[in-house]
Amino acid sequence: MTESERFEPHRVAFASRLNWLRAGILGANDGIVSIAALVVGVAAATSDIRTILIAGVAGIVAGSISMAAGEYVSVSSQRDSERALIARERQELIDQPDEELAELAEIYQSKGLSASTARLVAKELTAHDAIGAHLEAELGIDERQLTNPWHAAFSSALAFLAGATLPMLAITLPPDGWRIPLAFGASLLALAITGWVGARLGNSPPLKPVLRVLAGGTFALLLTWGIGTALGVSGI
Fold first, then answer.
1. Which of 23, 116, 124, 224 is the most buried (most CB within 10 A)?
2. pLDDT by residue (tens digit) across 51-73?
C-alpha cells in the first residue's frame, strides 16, 4: 500500500468534517445576527425585560425550527436527485455496458490520457467497481458519501441555537442602561470570530470575511435599533 492510499480515507473524512464545520459556522452566524437584531430592536422600544425575553426566546425557537426545516428539505431534495441519478446509471450499465465503457474511456481521454490508456483505465475501473467509477467520473458523486438530511437539520438547528445564546445573555443579564451597548459589542465580537474561523477553514485571508460579516451585522443591528427607538418614542 502506498502512502497516498494509506492516508486517503483520512483526507476524505477530513473533507466531510470540514463541510460540516462550515455549515455550522453559517448557522451560528445566522443565530447571532437574527437574534441580536431582534432583541436590540425590542430593547430599543421597551425596557421591560419580560417582553425582551419573550421576544428573544420566540425568535430562537422559530429560527432553529426554520433552519432545521430548510436544511432538511434542501438536503433531502439533493439526496433524492442523487439517488435518481445513481439508479439511472445502474440501469444504463445493465442495458448498455459497451456504450458506458466507451463513455468512461472518453472522459479519461478528455483529461489527457491517450486513447489506449484511457480504454485500459476504464476497463480496469469497471471491473473493480463499475457504478463507483461512472458516478465519480460522470457525476462527481460518491455513493457512500451522500449527505444525511437529519444530520444536516440537527446540525443547523444546534448551530443557530449556539449563535443565538450570546446576544440573549448580553441583552438580558446586564442592567437596563448597559443592555443595548453590550449586546452590540458581544454580537459584533462573535461575528468577527465566526468570520475569522470561516476564513481559516477556507485557507483564505481573514480580513475581508471578517469585515463582511461585521458590516452585515452592524447594518442589521442599527436598522432594528432605529426602528425600535422610533416605535418606542412614538408609543406604538
1. 224
2. 999 999 999 999 999 988 988 89
